[in-house]
């Protein structure tokens, strides 16, 4: 062909020529594929398909004579015919190959490409590469390889164990077993991470709750369960019932003119974490907290006493912001989230006994719950007090995090992390057993797909088994702290498997907004009644339709995925099956056994469905050229806050301030999102350097919402959407609300600082999304 083109070029005086050919290419701004014509100068045997280039000839113009002109014309016609035949045969071959790929007949010699948030079942691209698996094939492989029998076997390993408390023998033995399993699956790398942490555990004597009256002291309960990080103390005070212990509940008590100073607050479990209840009680002036499982929320738990922790934070509270490696020199600091008041859990029977001895007003109707004789507090003449004695002890323990990695073939230094808590105070079948079983099964299946089925993930997958999760995601947080300088630039998603099955009627999700679209699409596909592998998954979607999408719960301290998002700025997702009208009653108790968990309808079918959802998310994020992260979703979240802030625009102006700069920063972020979408649309999908740079810009979005103006030591949860502290958008909104409800409580200087820090955090995120420094500016 080169000789033919050279001859033709000579014949027509060396003028630059281009030629056309057909190729199948994805429309980057739509969901449909079609055949389009592309200009190119590449020959049929080489060059990069789809690029526009022109072949320029520099040959001199030959002399033309009448004698050979006729010969040259004949030769040119012959060469044109030959070129046309060769081009046609080549085109026909490529179209046959494309048809083979599109008909789902197996592997094909083409590499799929992606457009932003492409449909799952679309077959993509036409770039020649070694044989690979297309997305529909990949989904089928995963689904066919998942084994209910293996999931059941790994869950049942917990059946005969009463406890897997962090750092003790059962927890360590399970870590060794998981390490051995990872090695047997032939993962590319398997290793331990050791951390040396401080834990608070039960003392040699059980904690006690008593009632002191004129007649003397009466023991109410002395349970074997305890609350980690409670203050070790003996305190007494009048009892006050505050429903779920939420801020609104405390405000309602204040309106009743009931003093909470030096009181013992009684709350029921649920709605918010125990640590948040304790923090609210401490702020109100209480000296102690008692929490029970209300029978109206947790059926069949009259005698059960749950375990828990009272640290308002994550990780080892005695090394905040620092990793607990053995060689670390720790500063003499402790977490500000430690409660410094006494805390204990009790049974609902004990709560009923306390209520029976209280002679004050009866509870509000919506506070009554399932405990008989509910009372708010004591009468003004009563001299009864509740006495709480906590005897917990501090211990130093070594914990093991276990990791296994499947390395990516193109970008091994970019990875998705799949993790599950391994430890539990009791048997922990639902809390830790289900997640651990899913983790092992996904590691086995995906490794088998790589080793035996030809799957070549572009990016790496890390499987992680965490210890000390019961104490506030300690194992995972210490790992994040240990590698904080690099993880945010390499780990682009965390998938949490904890408590994935707590019921069977509904689905609950918690995730970074960047993962909503992927999670929704994945769950709808896996639970499609027409495609569902398990009958339970299909009937679930038939019952609830698409309403499950609305069961979105913000990630908070109670989620194991929370530190990944709020501390490290890594998009995280947590999901699970549950019953909307009733809680799984045995979580965090000694009755969280496999036998009790089996009361859930089609338990193992649901576990398998949860494994398929998590597996598909991981595979999708490592399969496509473009990271399947919806970076534009935060524009909607910012717009929602802007609408809330607008209500206080006039009040802010009266202080000599303005919200305009904050709104301009949001607009800049939206323009940066639009610009990145244009860059993705206009980029060469086959250029790995450009694609990596675009993916890195996508990865930066979550991290750039961590406030850069705070120290991780002092404020580790720096995310302005999901973090804790005055730097968050929610805190700013609450401060603005005071302008209308309690103007005298507004701290103008603090408000000005909050507005400035939030504005420049958003503006910095916009600049980072733009990309290169020469494309950014500080003009609003």
From TrEMBL:
It is a single-pass type II membrane protein. InterPro entries: PA_dom_sf, PA_domain, Peptidase_M28, Peptidase_M28B, TFR-like_dimer_dom, TFR-like_dimer_dom_sf, TfR1/2_PA. Residues 236-297 form the PA domain. Gene3D superfamilies: 3.50.30.30, Transferrin receptor-like, dimerisation domain, Zn peptidases. Residues 401-597 form the Peptidase M28 domain. One of its GO terms (biological process) is cellular response to leukemia inhibitory factor. Stearoylated. It comes from the Eukaryota. Keywords: Cell membrane, Disulfide bond, Endocytosis, Glycoprotein, Lipoprotein, Membrane, Palmitate, Phosphoprotein, Receptor, Signal-anchor, Transmembrane, Transmembrane helix. Residues 661-769 form the Transferrin receptor-like dimerisation domain. GO terms for cellular component: basolateral plasma membrane; clathrin-coated pit; early endosome; endosome membrane; external side of plasma membrane; extracellular exosome; HFE-transferrin receptor complex; melanosome. It is found in: Cell membrane; Melanosome. Homodimer; disulfide-linked. Belongs to the peptidase M28 family. M28B subfamily. This is Transferrin receptor protein 1. It comes from Struthio camelus australis.
């Amino acid at each position: 062909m080169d000789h033919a083109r050279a001859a033709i070029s000579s014949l027509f005086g060396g003028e630059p020529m281009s030629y056309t050919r057909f190729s199948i290419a994805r429309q980057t701004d739509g969901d449909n594929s079609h055949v389009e014509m592309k200009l190119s100068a590449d020959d049929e045997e080489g060059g990069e398909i789809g690029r526009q280039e022109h072949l320029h000839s520099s040959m001199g113009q030959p002399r033309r004579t009448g004698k050979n002109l006729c010969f040259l014309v004949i030769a040119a016609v012959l060469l044109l015919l030959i070129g046309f035949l060769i081009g046609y045969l080549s085109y026909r071959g490529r179209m046959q190959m494309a048809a083979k790929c599109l008909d789902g007949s197996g592997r094909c010699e083409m590499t799929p490409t992606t457009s932003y948030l492409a449909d799952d079942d679309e077959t993509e691209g036409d770039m020649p590469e070694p044989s690979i698996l297309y997305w529909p094939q990949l989904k089928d492989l995963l689904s066919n390889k998942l084994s209910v029998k293996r999931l059941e076997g790994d869950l049942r390993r917990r059946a005969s164990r009463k406890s897997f408390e962090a750092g003790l023998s059962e927890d360590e033995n399970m870590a060794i077993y998981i390490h051995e399993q990872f090695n047997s699956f032939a993962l590319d790398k398997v290793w331990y991470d050791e951390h040396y942490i401080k834990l608070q555990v039960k003392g040699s004597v059980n904690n006690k709750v008593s009632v002191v009256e004129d007649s003397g002291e009466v023991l109410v309960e002395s349970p074997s369960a305890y609350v980690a990080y409670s203050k070790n103390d003996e305190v007494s005070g009048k009892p006050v019932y505050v429903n779920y212990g939420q801020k609104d509940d405390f405000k309602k008590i204040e309106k009743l003119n009931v003093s909470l100073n030096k009181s013992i607050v009684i709350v029921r479990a649920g709605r918010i974490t125990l640590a948040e209840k304790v923090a609210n009680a401490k702020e109100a002036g209480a000296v102690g907290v008692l929490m029970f499982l209300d029978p109206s929320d947790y059926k069949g738990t009259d005698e059960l006493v749950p375990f828990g922790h009272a640290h308002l934070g994550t990780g080892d509270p005695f090394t905040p912001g620092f990793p607990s490696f053995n060689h670390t020199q720790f500063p003499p600091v402790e977490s500000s989230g430690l409660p410094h008041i006494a805390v204990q859990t009790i049974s609902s029977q004990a709560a009923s006994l306390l209520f029976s001895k209280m002679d004050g007003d009866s509870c509000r109707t919506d506070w009554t719950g399932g405990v008989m004789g509910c009372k708010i507090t004591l009468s003004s003449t009563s001299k009864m007090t509740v006495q709480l004695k906590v005897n917990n002890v501090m211990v130093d323990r070594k914990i093991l995090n276990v990791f296994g990695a499947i390395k990516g073939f193109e970008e091994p230094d970019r990875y998705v992390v799949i993790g599950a808590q391994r430890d539990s105070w009791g048997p922990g079948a639902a809390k830790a057993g289900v997640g651990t079983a899913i983790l092992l099964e996904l590691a086995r299946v995906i490794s088998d797909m790589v080793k035996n089925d030809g799957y070549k993930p572009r990016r790496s997958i890390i499987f992680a088994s965490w210890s000390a999760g019961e104490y506030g995601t300690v194992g995972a947080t210490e790992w994040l702290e240990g590698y904080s300088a690099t993880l945010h630039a390499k780990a682009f998603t965390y998938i949490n498997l904890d408590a994935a099955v707590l019921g069977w009627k509904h689905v609950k999700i918690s995730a970074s907004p960047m993962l909503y679209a992927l999670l929704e699409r994945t769950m709808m596909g896996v639970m499609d009644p027409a495609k569902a592998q398990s009958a339970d998954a299909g009937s679930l979607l038939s019952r609830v339709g698409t309403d499950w999408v609305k069961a979105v719960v913000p990630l908070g301290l109670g989620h194991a995925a929370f530190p990944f998002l709020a501390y490290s700025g890594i998009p995280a997702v947590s999901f699970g099956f549950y019953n909307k009208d009733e809680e799984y009653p045995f979580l965090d108790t000694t009755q969280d056994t496999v036998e009790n968990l089996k009361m859930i309808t089609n338990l193992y079918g649901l576990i398998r469905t949860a494994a398929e959802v998590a597996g598909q998310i991981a595979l999708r994020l490592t399969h496509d050229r473009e990271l399947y992260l919806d970076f534009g979703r935060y524009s909607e979240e910012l717009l929602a806050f802007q609408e809330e802030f607008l209500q206080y625009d006039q009040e802010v102006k009266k202080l000599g301030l303005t919200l305009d700069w904050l709104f301009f920063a949001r607009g800049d972020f939206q323009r940066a999102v639009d610009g990145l979408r244009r860059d993705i649309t206009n980029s060469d999908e086959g250029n790995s350097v450009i694609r990596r740079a675009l993916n890195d810009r996508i990865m930066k979005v979550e991290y750039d919402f961590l406030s850069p103006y705070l120290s991780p030591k002092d404020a580790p949860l720096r995310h302005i959407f999901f973090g804790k502290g005055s730097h968050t958008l929610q805190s700013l909104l609450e401060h603005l609300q005071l302008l209308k409800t309690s103007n005298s409580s507004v701290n103008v200087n603090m408000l000005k600082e909050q507005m400035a820090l939030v504005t420049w955090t958003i503006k910095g995120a916009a600049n980072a999304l733009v990309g290169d420094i020469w494309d950014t500016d500080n003009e609003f």
